[in-house]
């Protein structure tokens, strides 16, 4: 398969500009983090091809995303949460894993059958997480049923995936595809790989038994109108669902993270996160997709997360979470609000040159 | 090449224009925003159509004032787009990369698209944060790009030599970020309007409300839409020209538009959408009428006060003096309403004060008599000034003090806006007024050389100003009014004060008057440079100016108090040391008017209403400017000069 690297793609003028802007924005961040503590850890429920599981989600603090050091994605502020400059040692990483297990012991009834591991970049990038650490972590969670690890397509290989499946773990490689539209991924998200690379990565993972791909999509990157964003996500969900090996599509409505280009646009009234109605419409309109389609709007109801009018946000969020577990679109028939009319007007009338029509 | 937009009338930065579609649209206009009752509106939302097709609003029913004339060529962020075919009945927005508010300049620069020329009305989306990144501020439009549009392939840049897109209108992509913030808004509109060709329209999408649209247009926006008003209605926001209210807080509907002719209890959010669009459309009609009348500013000084940011915008624009001054006519027939302190900062007022204190020359030797203005214009026709004149008997130079003009020497009492303003008379002066008039009087006295100043002014405001100024100038002030300027005592005191002063003659008075007007109109010293051997004939105020041989050079125009030249006068002007405003034209002989495409070059200093000399290989002419200089050079449509006299060469 092709091996795209950030360097290859940095030729484009648009990418140069995005990277320069993002580097400047990220430079405004002045904080450092303890390499022995995970960035975040929490317990939840997740829908997987094997059913709904209790889940332990871990965000490891690694050296950070290689791509983000060049500038990186316009909406991503996670890099700002990584250890400054350096990489994290094997020992420190294992301390972080221990802290997560401690958190689980304190807050859960027992070991969660599903473990999801993210970094601010790619778990399978050995500059972030060494082969030694990867194998040790696989071993640590060998008693679980299912594991999710996130990576850019470049770093995915069947050998690395087998590090997990050899322990009998159902393994899902999560890929932040963001959108199936290369043009939007390049120009709006500033992410360097192509849909073809995602397809190649899916083929690579599918070569391993007991492994599959979970695609992460970004709903409403900057520069798109609400309707453009909705249509782009719907077509992306369908295209992902059509790729063999991609069994789950998780849609992240864009939220406004600090030290990002999206944050700058939002601050100047040039960006609004998507409506929760758009998330619901996307889920309703993609039920024919041959994949599990879920969405977990972060910061729902707030100005910086997916939101409606302020009155109905919690109810719509509940319906979305309900849909995630049951995949039944009838959950959306039970929520309505006067602001649906406003959302419809926004879909009909907002253009990228008049956005955001409503905050 | 602007083929489809023409400016017909100007009122400062506001324009009354025409979007020349199959059915012409008078601007400023609402160009998008469908009727909320449209039955297709809901079904459109759930279709699986590609996003690109949403620009096509075929089948929409519209508010009568909301023309369905925008066709969106689509966003280049989401897809590569074919160059659309131009259509005569819509304004096609060329495929665009819109940069929302807050986009960094390096990003705008790197993604800046090129603009194809199409056969038909078209618009380009640019960012007011960096208009010149896309639109070169070049003076000339370069060669024409028409007729090549159909063949343009979709990646080929078709901007002309200056980088200016060959379009009829520009859309500001950061409108949402600047509307509501006075300085950012003024900055975006001023920078954009100064960068784009003057005969292109400016469209701000999704921002107009009944309360802000007068301000948007006043700043220089030509196209808006009903979208924001509709969306506000859908959220239960009831809009009027003075406020925005929650529908549920209204016990009665403060409006009688068709949507509001239902009982309050039956009025719902759909009605609210319709009402909001109605009010916006009505307000825009009023704004258009105001532009026709040349009186948008008078309206805005009152209406803008209903919101902080619109008031701030008006004031911030007053600080953009050169932007507004360039676009403000030097003379007009319309009245100036002086009802607020903001009037003092109007271009017309500032320009008069500036010219009186830097161009005008006093040619009288005697003392100065300062008197209060009169409500009646010109002052000399008022009863009070009749009494002053009888008392003075041509033994002194008469200058009126007034807010908001400052000081008006008797020679300029007809000159715009000295006889065109109407102020609010209470006898009370605000500190701003006092400061302004004192500043003008001080500057006036420093430039003149009177042996005495006789302040025949009432107590309080006028006297206060005189005393402030007297302390700062060398010439002594004498005060001749105890109670009121027209009482018998005051008048006789004024008479006696002038005992022994020499009378000046009528001829001297008339010569001084027309020379003073020439100074004011054409520049410092112009009165002497143009008319060294002056004779005047006919009666004031319709004086005719002749040279020593008796040939007529100019006529005084009583309704504006300016001079208009004959051909002989224009030749003398062109040959004189006084700065001449010239328009260079192609080889043709203009009849009646010079159209903009015929202009080869024009002085930057030309303002609407200015006398101009028109010269070309085949003709010499004189007339009155209908555009400002930069507009004449860059415009491709419209009347540049109304020609009064022409001679073939």
Structure description:
Chain A is an alpha/beta fold and 359 residues long. Chain A has helices at 6-9, 13-27, 66-70, 90-107, 131-140, 158-165, 182-189, 195-206, 226-241, 261-267, 276-285, 313-326, 339-349, and strands at 40-48, 51-59, 114-118, 146-150, 170-178, 211-219, 246-253, 292-295. Chain A has a single domain (8-354), classed as TIM Barrel (Alpha-Beta Barrel), CATH 3.20.20. Chain A is built from 13 helices and 8 strands. Chain A has an 8-stranded mixed β-sheet with strand order 1-2-3-4-5-6-7-8. Chain A is globular. Mean pLDDT of chain A is 92; it is low at 1-10. Chain B has 649 residues and is an alpha/beta fold. A 6-stranded mixed β-sheet of chain B has the order 25-29-28-27-24-26. A 5-stranded parallel β-sheet of chain B has the order 5-6-7-8-9, with helices on one face. In chain B, helix 13 (383-392) runs parallel beside helix 16 (488-497) and helix 14 packs across helix 15. The longest helix of chain B is centred in the middle third of the chain and has 25 residues, at 269-293. Chains A and B meet through helix 2, helix 7, helix 9, helix 10 and helix 13 of A and helix 1, helix 2, helix 4 and helix 7 of B.
């Amino acid at each position: 398969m092709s091996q795209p690297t950030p360097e290859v793609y940095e030729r484009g003028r648009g990418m140069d500009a995005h990277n320069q802007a993002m580097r400047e924005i990220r430079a405004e961040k002045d904080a450092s983090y303890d390499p022995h503590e995970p960035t975040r850890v929490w317990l939840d429920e997740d829908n997987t091809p094997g059913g709904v599981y209790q889940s332990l989600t871990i965000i490891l603090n690694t050296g950070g995303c290689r791509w983000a050091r060049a500038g990186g994605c316009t909406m991503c502020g996670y890099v700002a949460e990584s250890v400054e400059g350096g990489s994290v040692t094997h020992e420190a990483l294992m301390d972080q894993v221990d802290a997560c297990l401690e958190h689980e012991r304190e807050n859960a009834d027992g070991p969660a059958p599903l473990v999801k591991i993210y970094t601010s970049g790619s778990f399978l990038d050995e500059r972030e997480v060494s082969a030694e650490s990867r194998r040790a972590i696989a071993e640590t969670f060998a008693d679980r049923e299912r594991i999710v690890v996130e990576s850019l397509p470049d770093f995915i290989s069947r050998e690395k995936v087998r590090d997990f499946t050899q322990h009998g773990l159902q393994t899902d490689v999560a890929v932040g595809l963001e959108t199936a539209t290369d043009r939007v991924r390049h120009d709006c998200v500033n992410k360097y790989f192509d849909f073809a690379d995602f397809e190649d990565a899916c083929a690579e993972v599918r070569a391993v038994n007991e492994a599959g791909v979970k695609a992460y999509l970004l709903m409403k990157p900057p520069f798109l109108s609400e309707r453009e964003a909705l249509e782009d996500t719907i077509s992306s969900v369908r295209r992902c669902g059509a790729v063999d090996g991609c069994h789950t599509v998780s849609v992240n409505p864009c939220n406004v993270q600090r030290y990002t280009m999206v944050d700058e646009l939002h601050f100047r009234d040039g960006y609004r996160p998507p409506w929760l109605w758009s998330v619901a419409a996307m889920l309703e309109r993609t039920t024919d997709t041959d994949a599990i389609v879920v969405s977990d709007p972060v910061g729902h109801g707030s100005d910086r997360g997916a939101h409606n009018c302020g009155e109905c946000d919690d109810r719509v969020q509940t319906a979305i979470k309900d849909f995630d577990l049951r995949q039944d679109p009838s959950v959306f028939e039970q929520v309505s609000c006067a602001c649906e009319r406003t959302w419809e007007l926004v879909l009909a009338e907002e253009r990228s040159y008049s956005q955001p029509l409503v905050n | 090449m602007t083929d489809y937009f023409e400016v017909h009338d100007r009122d400062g930065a506001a324009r009354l224009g025409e979007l020349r579609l199959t059915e012409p649209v008078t601007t400023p206009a609402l160009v998008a925003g469908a009727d909320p009752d449209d039955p297709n509106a809901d079904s459109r939302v759930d279709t699986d159509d590609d996003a690109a097709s949403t620009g096509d609003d075929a089948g929409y029913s519209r508010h009568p004032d909301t023309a369905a004339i925008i066709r969106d060529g689509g966003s280049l962020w989401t897809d590569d787009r074919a160059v659309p075919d131009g259509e005569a009945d819509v304004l096609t927005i060329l495929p665009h990369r819109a940069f929302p508010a807050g986009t960094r300049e390096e990003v705008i620069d790197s993604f800046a698209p090129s603009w194809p020329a199409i056969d038909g009305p078209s618009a380009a989306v640019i960012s007011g944060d960096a208009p010149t990144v896309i639109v070169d501020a070049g003076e000339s439009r370069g060669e024409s790009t028409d007729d090549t549009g159909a063949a343009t392939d979709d990646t080929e840049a078709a901007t002309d030599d200056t980088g200016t897109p060959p379009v009829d209108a520009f859309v500001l992509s950061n409108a949402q970020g600047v509307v509501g913030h006075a300085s950012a808004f003024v900055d975006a509109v001023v920078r954009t309007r100064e960068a784009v060709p003057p005969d292109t329209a400016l469209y701000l999408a999704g921002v107009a409300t009944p309360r802000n649209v007068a301000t948007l247009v006043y700043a220089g926006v030509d196209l808006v839409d009903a979208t924001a008003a509709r969306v506000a209605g859908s959220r239960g926001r009831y809009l009027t020209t003075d406020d925005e209210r929650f529908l549920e807080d209204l016990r009665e509907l403060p409006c009688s538009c068709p949507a509001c002719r239902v009982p309050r209890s039956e009025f719902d959010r759909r009605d609210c959408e319709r009402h909001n669009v109605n009010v916006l459309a009505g307000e825009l009609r009023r704004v258009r009428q105001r532009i026709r009348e040349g009186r948008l500013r008078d309206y805005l000084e009152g209406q803008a006060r209903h919101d902080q940011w619109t008031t701030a915008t008006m004031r911030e624009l007053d600080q953009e003096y050169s932007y507004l001054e360039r676009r403000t006519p030097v003379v007009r027939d319309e009245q100036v309403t002086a009802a607020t302190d903001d009037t003092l900062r109007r271009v017309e007022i500032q320009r008069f004060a500036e010219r009186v204190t830097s161009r005008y020359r006093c040619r009288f030797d005697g003392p100065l008599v300062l008197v209060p203005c009169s409500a009646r214009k010109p002052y000399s026709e008022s009863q009070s000034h009749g009494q002053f004149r009888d008392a003075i008997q041509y033994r002194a130079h008469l200058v009126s003090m007034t807010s908001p003009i400052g000081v008006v020497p008797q020679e300029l009492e007809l000159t715009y806006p000295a006889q065109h303003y109407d102020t609010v008379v209470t006898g009370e002066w605000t500190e701003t007024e006092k400061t302004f008039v004192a500043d003008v009087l001080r500057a006036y006295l420093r430039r003149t050389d009177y042996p005495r100043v006789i302040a025949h002014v009432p107590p309080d405001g006028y006297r206060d100003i005189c005393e402030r100024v007297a302390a700062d100038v060398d010439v002594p002030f004498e005060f001749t009014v105890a109670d009121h300027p027209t009482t018998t005592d005051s008048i006789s005191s004024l008479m006696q004060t002038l005992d022994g002063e020499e009378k000046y003659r009528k001829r001297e008075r008339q010569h001084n008057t027309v020379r003073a007007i020439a100074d004011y109109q054409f520049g410092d010293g112009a009165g002497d440079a143009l008319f060294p051997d002056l004779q005047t004939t006919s009666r004031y105020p319709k004086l005719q100016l002749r040279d020593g041989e008796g040939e007529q050079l100019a006529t005084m125009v009583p309704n504006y108090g300016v001079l208009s030249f004959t051909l002989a006068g224009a030749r003398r002007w062109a040959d004189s040391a006084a700065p001449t405003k010239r328009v260079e034209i192609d080889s043709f002989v203009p009849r009646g008017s010079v159209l903009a495409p015929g202009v080869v070059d024009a002085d930057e200093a030309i303002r609407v209403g200015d006398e101009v000399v028109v010269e070309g290989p085949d003709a010499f002419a004189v007339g009155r400017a209908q555009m400002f200089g930069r507009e004449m050079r860059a415009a491709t449509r419209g009347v540049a000069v109304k020609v009064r006299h022409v001679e073939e060469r």
